[in-house]
Structures are given as structure tokens and as C-alpha cells.
Amino acid sequence: MTSSELMLKIDRARWDILQRDDLAFYATLTMQLTDKIGLPKGAAFATACTDGRHIYWGEEFLAKLTPEETRFVLMHEALHCAHLHAWRLPTDALGNQAADHAINLILQSLPGCKMPEGGLADPRFCNMAEEEILTTLRAEQRKPKAADDGSPSSPPGPSAPGDGDPGDGDPGDGDPGGCGGFMQPGEGSEEGSATSEQLQDEWISNVVQADMASRSTGRGAMPSGLQRLIGDALAPRINWKAEMADFVRTQVQSKNDWSRSCRRMATAPVIYPRRVTDQTGRVIFIRDTSGSVNDYQISEFNGMIRDSMRETGCGAYVIDADAQVNAEYEVDDADSIPPKAVGGGGTDFRPVFRRIRELAEGGMEIAGVVYITDLDGDEPTAADVDHELLWVCTTNRVAGTGRTVPIR
Fold first, then answer.
1. How far, in Å, are 33, 96, 98, 281, 316 from residue 80 at the CA level?
2. Dist. CA 275–CA 273, nearest whole Å
3. Does the CA dihedral 178-53-87-207 come out positive or negative?
4. Cα–Cα distance between 112 and 22 in angstroms, integer?
5. Are 285 and 317 in contact (CB under 8 A)?
6. In this structure, are residues 291 and 90 in contact, taking their beta carbons and an 8 Å threshold?
7. Confidence of residue 9 (pLDDT cuts 50, 70, 90)
8. Contact 33/206 with Cβ under 8 angstroms?
């Protein structure tokens, strides 16, 4: 099929969705995305994917789809955006599997569309949030499978469509479910686009408007899970960046020193004290590298570490940890923070707090601890925590120790 024929196929699918009263909510969402034939360079998907602005269609994949499957994939990609998957989940194969289960369970019951063969829609994940599904999939991935004779076995081959087997899909494809995936916001576009936060806000607004439009005409309805998600998104937001900066400032206080005057004001007719920083030690910044915190969030966190160091003059000690401590960096120059976090296993917070205690016993002066994570793991007890602690959390969980600030 030519590019023009493929584009016509998509247009017909979108038009068919628009004509159905019971798909009005989804039709409004699909209108927010621009279609592009061909996948971005280096894309992990051979099927289709979205960056929040566009849907990129693999030519071979699209050519093989039936009209019913094309409508399904079109709504599938729109729901990746509506469910804010790029902001909630890692953009790897496992994150895409979790997202697929959640939205395919919604779409497979809709009329006029059909899930492509091999799509992921395991009924045991009904009414579960994507983060919970991801946690379950990670646990199953870490658990070795045993053969009948008790020896480890290789993963089973592809099974029936919809049973949630991650073995389905093309080998090496970042979309094991074969229905299309999602990328970081704007990743596939060379156009000047809005920031990630602005795009997230736009999609929250898109969902609210789609719901209002469908309610006003009595056509279609927003899924209950999406109602809860948007309700949380519209709740008053805490500025986690400001909270983190304030936490670091509080732990690393500066004060007036009258023993020497400020050199910049040496010629002034009155004495101005210099500002000195309390020698309270380093702030420990911990990056959860279990895979639940995506590269974009790590990048933002690194920027906040740099800003905190420059503003307060504090030294930093950066630890990468999942179920164990993977890497440690003593950072005195704000520009030398390692951009990539090391790890990728499960999550257990206790080993890193044992390591912090070892550092303190070894003579390190620790001002406070900041931990970016999804809080999905074995938490430390109050007895394990010896210093002021701030959790910067990528989910709505609240830790039993310290203070928790959500990233929204």
C-alpha cells in the first residue's frame, strides 16, 4: 500500500469512530493526535507509537490491519495519552505491557473494533492501576520458572490472544502486545513542542473536555478508572521541586557571621556581615534505579540536585539503588552529577539506609536524605532512619517514615 492509501485507511477508521454514538468519548480523544506514516528513527516499536502529539504508524503493521483492528489501535494510542502513560510508566517493554493490559481490557468490550492477535488483556488485571500491574509483571519476571523436573525452564512460546503472555509480538520489538506503544513526550518529533508538563496538562484538559462533550450529548462515557485518574490529576498540586529545594535549604542553613565583614561591601560606611553556611555535611540524594522511575524523572531530579547545590553551597552524595546499592558518587561540583542511574532490579529500601548508617559511622556528616522512588518495595522502619528524610514519590503512595511529596 502507498502512503496515501495508508493515510486513507487511518482517516476511514477515525471517521467510523466519529460516527458511532457509543464511541463519542474516544472519538474526541483520537482527534487530538496527528497521524504520521513511518516510525521515528531508532524507535523500539515496529507497530505504532505516540509521543503525545502524533501517532507514528509502521507501514507493514498498518497494511496488515483489518478496519476493525485499525480502529482498535487508533483508540489504543489515544488512551496511552489519556491515561498519561508517558508520565506514569517507564517507556520500556514491561511498562508498555502494563499499559496495554489496562487499556485493552477497556477497549476489547467496545463495539466496532477488534484487538489485534496477540494483544495483552489479562482479566486478572481488571480494575487495577497500571502501576500495580507493572509491579506484578516485574515480580513475575524476576521469579524463575521451573520445568516439571524442577530445573529452570525457558519462557513458554506465544499463547492465545488476550491472555497476557509477554512472549507475543515480534522478536526484539518494544511492543510485545502488538497494539502500539508510547514514547517520552515529544521524543519522536523534531518540531518545537510544549514542555512535558504542559503536554500532560493538555491531555488532562482533553480528557475532561471529551467527557463533558459525551455527557452533554448523552453519547459514550469515560471509563471509571480514567475518572479516578483525572480526579487525582485535577486535585491541588504540591510543587515537588519547591518542596525539595526548601527541604535542602532547611537542612543546610546559612547565617550572619559578624567576625568578618562581607568583602563585597568592604567600602560601605557600615559593617555588613558575611554569610556562612553551617558545617552540617552533605545531603544524600538517592535515585531509585529499579526501573519504576523513568529517565525523564531522573533527569529532572538531577537538575534539582544541581540547583540545590548551587543555591545552598552544599555537597552532595548520590546513591543509585534498587534492591541493593549499585553506585555511589561524592559530588562537589554541581555539573559533575552522573546523568545515567545504575541498576534495574527489584526494590528494597533497607540496604541503602544501612549504607547511610555505615557512612555516618565512618565519619560523614549527613545533613539530610532525599529519595526519588515509586515507594514500591520493602520500606525502612523508623529505627532504620537516622536523618531527616524526604521521599519524592512518582506515585500516590505515602511512606511510613519521613515526609512524602508526590510528583504529579
1. 11, 9, 11, 44, 37
2. 7
3. negative
4. 10
5. yes
6. yes
7. very high
8. no
- The secondary element (H helix, E strand) that includes residue 308 is helix 295-312
* CATH number for the segment(s) 240-406: 3.40.50
Q: Are residues 186 and 53 in contact, defined by beta-carbon separation less than 8 angstroms?
A: yes
User: Chain-centre distance of CA 90, in angstroms?
Assistant: 5
pTM confidence score: 0.59
What are residue 321's DSSP bridge partners? 288, 325
Q: Which residues pair with 257 in a beta bridge?
A: 274
Burial 135-154 (b: 16+ CB within 10 A, else e): bbbbeeeeeeeeeeeeeeee
Crossing angle of helices 196-217/224-234, nearest 10°?
A: 130
Residue of 97, 95, 70, 56 lying closest to 13 (CA atoms) = 70
Q: Look-up: residue for cell 497500571?
A: 130
Question: 225 φ, ψ to 5°?
Answer: -65, -40
Coil, strand or helix at 355: helix
3-class DSSP state of 49: strand
Mean pLDDT of 36-57: 90
Give the type of residue at 70.
T
Q: Grid coordinates 541493593 are at which residue?
A: 324
Q: For residues 37 and 216, what is the distance between their CA atoms, to the nearest angstrom?
A: 34
| Cell 548508617 found at | 357
Question: Residue 49 in contact with residue 180, Cβ under 8 Å?
Answer: yes
pLDDT class of 155 with cuts at 50, 70, 90:
very low
Structural domain boundaries in the chain: 3-147+155-232, 240-406
